[in-house]
Design goal:
The chain is mostly helical. It is 69% helix and 0% strand.
Length: 349
């Protein structure tokens, strides 16, 4: 979407985007919901749990998160971002398409507005009593700055490949080549977020200042951790070579399944062993959760996710009426597309 707005090239098909996102997310998630709500021991399941979790609307119901599925709130928030993203893309491409410098500024202002929205939402919800309606902490506006950083990386990645990129983008690209510094910053920020400065250890909200600290420490840690993987120009390096190793590539393929199943493995294993939550036994629970989550994730990828992705990426099957040849009115859009593509290649040359 960034590339199409900068260079006025072919715009990604919104229907294809939605179809692939839904097939990537929903099938494996639905299996998890059915397994947890139908078979996980120690939870009381009500009809509203089924309705909310199967529709990924649990973040709009107060006090509806349930053991084994509490991590799915972030997936619901992410899905709402996927629904909003085409509108953001339409906005950035509405003006200055093909004017690289002007459209870059338009995109940066749009991302700044996303960050401002998140700041205002965070401020409002921390100074306004919400009572039991704490689900507002999980809604999309609260995390628009997190998504904006990811979109910023996409913008910088594409803008650096166009003539005369801004100097600060070049400096950011050079910082990405210094993987050691990025990782040290990421670890330091994460360790700081693990202290009481970012709120209680029991995941409570804490004070307004703690909420702000936690929000931006997590954002900084994630950005510094991912930066060397998004940007940089000086070859692979040790860190990037490790990320491209067969083991890490495999874990990357099944990472969605690890996200989905790790709490089911942890909660079920803890109950079978008689270990209460937040009661220690780390060196038993951690390897058990890692091994079990990878096993479930592998099965999920092979049996559900990979077939779903292959289906969503298969050529679209369009209804064709027999005996009807395309007339001139059907050829014109293709001719316009070819002409736009030729213009795009001439500009790149």
């Amino acid at each position: 979407m960034v590339q199409a707005a900068l260079h006025d090239s072919r715009w990604p098909a919104t229907r294809t985007y939605f179809r692939r996102r839904l097939w990537r997310i929903v099938p494996a998630y639905v299996v998890l919901v059915v397994v947890v709500l139908a078979f996980m021991p120690g939870i009381e399941v009500l009809p509203k749990h089924w309705l909310a979790h199967l529709t990924l609307t649990q973040i709009y119901w107060p006090k509806l998160l349930i053991n084994g599925l509490t991590q799915s709130w972030s997936l619901a928030t992410e899905l709402s971002f996927y629904l909003v993203l085409p509108a953001i893309a339409w906005w950035i491409g509405r003006r200055h398409r093909g004017d690289v410098a002007a459209n870059t500024r338009r995109q940066l202002w749009t991302l700044a507005a996303c960050a401002g929205l998140a700041f205002a939402w965070l401020l409002l919800r921390t100074i306004t009593p919400v009572g039991e309606f704490t689900v507002v902490n999980m809604w999309l506006p609260n995390f628009m700055d997190w998504f904006a950083v990811g979109m910023l990386f996409a913008l910088v990645h594409n803008r650096l490949r166009a003539p005369d990129p801004p100097a600060w983008m070049g400096r950011l690209n050079r910082l990405a080549d210094d993987a050691a510094t990025c990782l040290i910053v990421a670890v330091a920020l994460f360790l700081l977020a693990s202290t009481p400065i970012a709120g209680p250890y029991t995941f409570g909200e804490g004070s307004a200042s703690q909420a702000f600290m936690r929000h931006y420490l997590y954002l900084g840690a994630a950005a510094a951790l991912l930066l060397p993987g998004f940007l940089g120009t000086e070859g692979w390096g040790t860190w990037r070579a490790m990320l491209a190793s067969p083991l890490m590539s495999y874990l990357g393929k099944i990472s969605y399944g690890i996200f989905l199943w790790h709490l089911f493995v942890l909660e079920t294993g803890s109950r079978l062993l008689g270990i209460a939550s937040f009661n220690g036994w780390f060196w038993i629970l951690w390897p058990m959760t890692v091994v079990g989550s990878v096993a479930f994730a592998h099965a999920s990828y092979v049996l559900i996710e990979r077939p779903a992705q292959e289906h969503s990426h298969s050529p679209s099957r369009r209804l064709r009426l027999p005996g009807r040849a395309p007339g001139p009115q059907h050829r014109r859009p293709r001719q316009r597309q070819r002409k736009a593509l030729q213009n795009h290649h001439s500009r790149r040359a």
